[in-house]
Amino acid sequence: MGKLLHISASPRDDASESLRIAQVFTDAYRETHPGDEVEHWDLWDGTLPDFAVGAKAKMTVFGGGEPQDSEAAAWAAARRTFERFDAADRLLFSVPMWNASVPYVLKQFVDVVSQPGWIFSVDPATGYGHLLAGRGKRVAVVYTSAVWGPALGPEFGSDFQSTFFNDWLRWTGLTDISEIPFHPTLAGDYEEARRAADAQARDIAKGF
Fold first, then answer.
1. Going edge to edge, which strands form the sheet with 90-96?
2. Which own/partner pairs from 122-131 qualify as long-range (CB within 8 Å, at least 24 positions apart)?
3. How many CA atoms, within 13 angstroms, populate the side-chain half-sphere of residue 154?
């Protein structure tokens, strides 16, 4: 039995297009993968640990030491977060665009789980090692925006949303990535873009 983990970065509940499209995806996934577990992880639910002390623990580990006391507790909390993420072989992220990039809670998630020995290694000669590679994990990402669109000029903003997040996924070793974009323009193609995103979500989910 497989597991799909939906990690959502929108706090807007029923008003969120990224969450709505993700629901289309998970509904189609359940229909075609009836034996699989589907879990929803709302990054706004307060379970993400603060990483101020964890950052100190990270540097302790980098230096070959063992975190102690408050650092040890922060490191353990980060490890639990990573293990929840790592337990799924199928990952769905719903990512709205905030100020040309991703919501800060998603960046917090990235910073908490991106640790040496878990996500990456470093070699002085060859650089980074990508520790999630070669494990058969697949990723789908719903990218939404309200103003920016790929066909629009720079006066409508820039995309540091998919560029940042796709780069992070590849850096971890997760390279089997399917994108589901929803970027309706202000010209009135909202319903057409919505139908296209929903159809793409269903198609990807069925073969996921």
1. 37-42, 3-8, 90-96, 138-144, 177-182
2. 128/171, 130/170, 130/171, 130/172, 130/173, 131/172, 131/173
3. 0
Q: Tens digit of pLDDT for each residue in 30-62?
A: 999 999 999 999 999 999 999 888 888 888 888
> Annotated binding site for FMN: which residue ranges?
10, 16-18
How many CB atoms neighbour CB 43 within 10 A?
20
Rounded Cα distance between 90 and 5, Å, is 6
Q: Determine the Cα angle at 177 with ends 118 and 47, to 5°.
A: 50
**pLDDT over 90 at 199, yes or no:** yes
Binding residues, by number, are: 10, 16-18
Q: How far from the centroid of its chain's Cα atoms is residue 15's Cα?
A: 20
The dihedrals phi and psi of 167, each to the nearest 5 degrees, come to -65, -40
